[in-house]
Amino acid sequence: MNLTQKFVIPLLLVAFVAGGVVGRSLPQRKHSVLPLPNAATNRLAGSAWPRPKPTARLNASHDQSARGTEKIDLANLAAAINQALNGPRQKRHEALLKLAQQIDLHDIPAALQQSRNVSREVRFTFVNELLRRWGAVDPTAAFDFVEKNCSGLERDSALNALLRGWAEVDIAGAAAWVEKLPPNQRRANLVNAVCSMWAQQDPLAALAWLDSLPGSKNSNLASQSYMAIFSEWASRDPVAAAAKLSEIDLKGHDRFSLVYPIVSALIDKDPEAAQKWIEGLPKGQMRDQAFQHFISQLANKDPEKAIALSQTLPAGANRLQSVRSAISQWAQNDLPAALKWIENLNAGPEKNAAFESISYGWAQSDPTGAAEYAAKLPEGSTRNRFMSTIASSLGQQNPQAALDWANQMPTGNAKNDAIRNIMSGWAQNDPASAIAYLSQLPPRVRNEVTGQVVGQWAQTDPAAAAEWVKQLPPGKMQQDALRSISWQLAENSPEKAAELVSSLPPGQSRREMLGQLVSSWGRRDLNATVAWVQQFPEGTEKETALQNLSWPWAEADPDGAAAFAQQMPAGNGRKNLLENVARNLAQNDPRNALTWAQKIPETEREPIYAAIASSWANNSPEEAAKFVATLPAGETQNNAANQVVTQWASNDPQAAASWAQNFPAGPTRDNALQNVIRQWGQNDPAAAAAWLQKQPQDASRDQLVGAFTDSMAYSYPEIAAQWVGTIGDERQRNHRIEQVAMNWLRQNEPAALEWIEKTPLPADAKKRLLQTQTRRSFVH
Q1: Are 588 and 577 in contact (CB under 8 A)?
Q2: Pair 354, 327: CB distance under 8 Å
Q3: The predicted structure's pLDDT at residue 61
Q4: H helices within 694-748, ranges in order?
Q5: Residue pair 460/434 in contact by the 8 Å Cβ criterion
Q6: Which residues have a Cβ under 8 Å from the Cβ of 622 and sit 6 or more positions away?
Q7: Contact between 200 and 233 (Cβ < 8 Å)
Q8: Least confidently predicted of 30-44, 125-139, 152-166, 299-313
Q9: Distance between alpha carbon 164 and the CA centroid of its chain, in Å?
């Protein structure tokens, strides 16, 4: 008997209750009842894929992973799965993999049959390992099984698993099959899998295959697939991978994602060579990001050297992250020395980041000592975060004792944060006890933590958590609790989630939970979700459902989503669905997306063009910029330009700024440049400030300085303070000064007060700032 003949019952078919149960379960409700979910739907039009055809002769000898393992009787499978799930959380994945390898090859269909009503963890570990093994010996039968029984995310994951098994023994056949698939994100994911598997055998051949795919240079899959190849290559031969990367034109790709795995591998092999290679990269954000990653990795080997190198980076997000990584490792090796270094820093974001980084490890190893040190810190946000971290650590060890300690803290935000963290950690390990303790909390704190606690409960028993939430009085606490459980409930039991939504009165909570249900379920089983939503009567709830379904639908079946959207009446539902179709098409083939957009009525094209420009700029900002330049001046061009510069500025702000400056004077140019300077300032304040210094003194410059100081006010108020005084417009200048002052007062009150006195703010504004700070200090 072959594998196909032994398959009898679907694996992952969602079992929903027969028609009318939702309505009958709550007959006393007078508000509308949602239609009943029904999984008995056909696959969406246009989603059929060709069946795999191996190019090599495959047989049981290719099932290498299961050799030498002790086989398990299927009669004992359910007990074995439960035993694996009841083990330590960190060992469950390994236990489920081992169990899947103990299944006899000819028993795989029957084992899949037994696993049809299992948890998400089992579906994505045990089931996928079985499918990987099946794919190595009979990918056609495995594919037929997946097509018949899986949908949504489960189908994607299952196909990826069987493809990996096939590619292990027949890479040419697997690659040829993937080439025939329709171009969309699902195909892109499988291209990545082939590239990763092929790179393990021959990275140069994998690169050649990727380059041969039509449109790969201009699609989203190219960056992801290059990443897959270079990650595998770097793990085996980082020197050769680095040399090849230097030969490749990185334009249009996420360049840092390709550098990242090489830096990691080079550090393990030769840290000095890694540093030298990074120093040879062109100066700019990619080089700074590579250095930040190098420092983070170096901290594991030599934290003191890593700290010293972090101080050579320009102020910005990369430097802060480097300090966090290095000081955390240093504190583990030599806490007194790390503390001394931190204490010598000037007050500001770097000192705050360093304290936050050492607090967790210290609280884990010596919570009493950490608490005594934190109590001596000056009052403020750093002390509060330190205390909250200690509370979290204490709570994991003894939540009741931790709450007793937290209740002795002075009333204020620090105390409330500590209690929230303790309750959240308690709920992870013992949700029943945490729920029971809620009534002992002060009303304000209870309202804030109920959602967190019930959310943890829903991970282990979503049905019980849902019943408990339904008994809460209507209001904010119930709304927060519903948000917390909606994802878990939708993931594990869509019919229960639909029943709960139907039981809620019309309002914000019902709409939010409906949206979460549709979004989550749509990723698991798009066919059933679409059929369900189409039964809704026209109105707000159907529009809400379609808005949340629009992305998973556009991702899985863009043609079907587009056809449905064009039949919808005008409104947000139609608009969102069309925009998401445009984004998805543009990820894979921007010019095809433009051709498609021409078929949409002209009055609806503006947001569609902006969506295409955003996706296009992810992969090729220069090409996207050329497209935007062809649009007529006005709101359409303005929105598209902002989408492009937002994406471009994250990788190459200098180029993005140069492009935006070529626009004619006006709102499009001003908005684009402001977007650039905000992102640039967050990542590299020094370079952004140097560019800003060269701009002419006019009203546009005032707006740019305002955008720059906005990005600096929280993390680097001392830098923002140097710039706000250069704003020419008095009203704008005073507004920005107050913003900077309020943030600086939170971080370094003495320095902020000294600066405020020197500013040209009116006396009443200075007085107002001081009064606000006095009230804040009293609360804390």
Answers
A1: no
A2: yes
A3: 67
A4: 699-712, 717-724, 730-747
A5: no
A6: 251, 252, 655
A7: no
A8: 30-44
A9: 24
Residue type at position 575 = K
Cα separation values, 317 from 283, 313, 464, 654, 685, Å: 17, 10, 43, 17, 9
Q: Which phi and psi (to 5°) does residue 266 adopt?
A: -65, -35
Give tens-digit pLDDT for 427-438.
877 888 888 888
Please check whether residue 36 is in contact with residue 17, taking contact to mean a CB–CB distance below 8 angstroms.
yes
Q: What is the pLDDT of residue 276?
A: 87
Phi, psi at 251, each rounded to 5°: -60, 130
* Both tokens assigned to 528: 């059933």
Q: Which residue has the tokens 């967190």?
A: 452
Q: With beta carbons less than 8 A apart as the criterion, state whether 739 and 710 touch.
A: yes
E strand spans, 177-306: none
Is 367 within 8 Å of 394 (Cβ atoms)?
Answer: yes
Number of H helices, E strands in the chain: 47, 0
Q: Flag whether pLDDT at 652 surpasses 70.
A: yes
Instruction: Mark out the alpha helices in 620-698 (DSSP H runs).
Output: 621-629, 635-649, 653-661, 667-683, 685-693
CA distance 405 to 99: 44
Q: pTM of the full predicted structure?
A: 0.59
Q: Is 246 exposed, middle or buried (0-12, 13-18, 19+ CB in 10 A)?
A: exposed
Tell me how far apart the 2 most distant CA atoms of the chain are, in Å.
90
Radius of gyration of the chain (CA): 29
